[in-house]
Amino acid sequence: xxxxxxxxxxxxxxxxxxxxxxxxxxxxxxxxxxxxxxxxxxxxxxxxxxxxxxxxxxxxxxxxxxxxxxxxxxxxxxxxxxxxxxxxxxxxxxxxxxxxxxxxxxxxxxxxxxxxxxxxxxxxxxxxxxxxxxxxxxxxxxxxxxxxxxxxxxxxxxxxxxxxxxxxxxxxxxxxxxxxxxxxxxxxxxxxxxxxxxxxxxxxxxxxxxxxxxxxxxxxxxxxxxxxxxxxxxxxxxxxxxxxxxxxxxxxxxxxxxxxxxxxxxxxxxxxxxxxxxxxxxxxxxxxxxxxxxxxxxxxxxxxxxxxxxxxxxxxxxxxxxxxxxxxxxxxxxxxxxxxxxxxxxxxxxxxxxxxxxxxxxxxxxxxxxxxxxxxxxxxxxxxxxxxxxxxxxxxxxxxxxxxxxxxxxxxxxxxxxxxxxxxxxxxxxxxxxxxxxxxxxxxxxxxxxxxxxxxxxxxxxxxx
Length: 465
Hints:
alpha+beta, Rossmann fold, Immunoglobulin-like, 2 domains, 7-stranded antiparallel sheet, 6-stranded parallel sheet, 8 helices, EC 2.3.1.286, Sirtuin, zinc
C-alpha cells in the first residue's frame, strides 16, 4: 500500500498479527492445488473474488503484515520499506489482469477489495462489479450528488474528509470528499451491501493475498457457507479462516492465478495505461492591435491547480524555427507566453517528456496556430479512441501514442481547450515462464524493450476440464 496512506492513518495499538512466517507448498503439491482450483472455478456458477494487499506486492506496493510489511517493520522499530516506484505510477499486475479476463469470460461475478491502491478499477473491472471496502486513494466523491471522480494523482486526505476540489456539475458545486477509510470509519453501505449480497449468493469465494484479519471485512467470505458455498484461500501466511476453507494454497498469488488461467485456456491481457491532459491556448490582441499576445498551458484535466504526475517537462518548438525560439518548460505549471503578428500562421510542436516509471520517454503533439479562434466545440467517441490507442500500443509493442478526444472553444476569452489521451505505459504478462521462486518476472515494455510472445488470439484450445 501507499506509504503515505499508512502514515495518514490514525494510530492504533492492535493491528493484528504481523510478520508471520511465509509458507510455500512444495512444487508438486502447489501444482495439484492449482489444478483443483481450476476445476472449482470452472464448475462455479457465482464466483466472488476477495482481495488483499498480497495481490499488489508484485506491482511494487508494500503490504502491511508480511515479513517486510509496513506494520511489521514499524513494530520492529525498523525503517519503512521503499516503494519501487511512486504510488500513482503503479500499474495492475498479473493477478489484476487475470481477474479482468475471468470477468470478461463471465466466470467472475463480483470482486471485493480491501486495497486502496485503485488497481482493480484501473485494470478494467467494471465499477458495478467492484466493491472497494476501504476506499480508493485516487477517487473522490461528491456527497451531494454521489458522482465519483477518478484522479491520476493520490488524493491528499483520508478519513472521508473534504478535499480542495468541488463537484464539476454547475448545478451542484459541493465540496468533494476522499473515499479512504480511517480506522474508526464504518464500511460504507454503498460498498458493503453489494459485497454482502454477492457473498451470500456465491458458491465459491476466492480469497487472494489477504490475511483475513480486518473486521468486519474478513467475515464476508464466510457468508457463502450458509448456502453451501466454498471458500478458497491463496496466501503466503496462515489466516484465521483457514479451517473454514475447502482449499488453502500457500504460494505466490500471481503464480497460482497464472496457472489457473493456463489450465482454463484463457489469456492474461496486457495492461495499457492511458492518461489525459489538456492543452489550453488563450489569445488577446495588443492595445495597438499590432500583435497577438498568447498563452499556452499544458494542464491536468482535473483542474488548473492539479499536478500532472506523469509529465516531467515540456519542450516547445515551432515550424518556423528562424522566427521563433524553442522553449523548455521544466516546472509545473507548464506555461508559455509569447507575442506574434495577427496575420501569421505556424505550427506549435509540443514534446511532453514523461516522468520516470512511464514506459516511454515522451509523446509529440502538433498544434496549428493562427489568430482565428474557432467558435466550434466537439467531443469524439472517447471509448472508441481508447480502444484504438490500446490496440495500437499492443500491436506495435510500444507506447507514446496520443489522440485528441475533445475540443472546447470559449469565444468570450479567445480560448480553446483541447483534451488529449496518451498511452504512457504498456505491460504484458508471460504466464508460461513465471516461477514460484521468482514471481516478479513479468515482462514490461519500457522504451521499446522486448515483450513476451503470446499464443495466437485466434487459436484458443478447449479447456482441459
